[in-house]
Amino acid sequence: MVALQAAMKSGDENAGKQAWEQFHESVVESVKNDYEMAAGDRAALAQRGYRQLTGAETEFYQKLITAGKAADPRQEFTSLISTNGAMPETIIEDVFRELTQEHALLSKINFQDVKYLTRWILNDHTKQTAVWGPINGEITKKLESSFREVSLTLYKLTAYTVIPKDMLDLGPTFLDNYIRTILKESIAISLEKAIVDGNGLNCPIGLDRNIGKSTSMNPSSGYAKKTAVKLKSFEPKEYGNVISQLVETENGGMRNFTSVTLICNMKDYLQKIMPATTVLNAAGAYTKDIFPFPTEVVISNEVETGEAILCLPEEYFLGLGGNKEGVIEYDDSYKFIEDQRTYKIKLHGTGKAWDNTVAVLLDISKLDPAYITVRNETVTA
């Protein structure tokens, strides 16, 4: 997973293909080994992360296997989708659930499985107040929440998996685990990158992007990155000034929050954040992640080295769902010679922070290590 993420981030197409093939092969071998060791043993399969399939899921996978082995698999697969509709919702729901459990950043944001909806209504955080008046006076103001409608079909997230045909012989349970593992990891990498650094060009808008009311999206490069705020220490005054930038919304409202999230990559955490937030206590033991304001550090290697994102992750909305016409498509031409079959999943959705004050991009390249300040005072007799 780490190698695949690094290869995709590098932009090297060959490195990406090689990392993907290695990841794919490792999943195939893992599933085959589990099949040989634990086939039929439900307890052992559950320990290895295999789900107990529902009736609808078992039927879907069984028909998928039958279609894959047919003399005219393309026609059989077309019939499967047209008669059975999309993949059972429970499969996608389980992928989403595991994504939020296993990827810290995805578990912090306002992640919504919107199923097959194409539009989503969000409260726009507009502050409205009642109006005082005489007891017998006319009601002068109606309280209404301001809502924002978000289109979920703006962007399409596509991932594909190549299934060796002998995998079809392992049965529905193992095919389910294989497909979900491949799709889950490929989707996770794409989502995390978009949440952190998406430019809004055919993808969600990242937390590090400038989406202020006075800005607009460049049709060729998307939204520009925010100007990074230099942070040299986590001293209360300096850190408090930075956090205060999250308080006032663009609409003029004031947020109340009891904690914030700091997103950085693993290298910067070890070299910058950890030394700046770790102290030696009176008992001779190190205490880490000491901040003057409650802060949770989340590691994401999608953040550029030397930078960090301070944010309110619950104020970032990410809606993702399937397509009513079927989320899985099949093709036999891509890997025909290697006796492998390609399956593709399509998801629709979008992601964006509530406004430009939800996140602050930080420059932590000059962050000082933590140290105890000692002040000498001369006492006059």
From TrEMBL:
SUPFAM superfamilies: Major capsid protein gp5. This is Phage capsid-like C-terminal domain-containing protein. It is found in: Virion. Residues 87-218 form the Phage capsid-like C-terminal domain. It comes from the Bacteria.
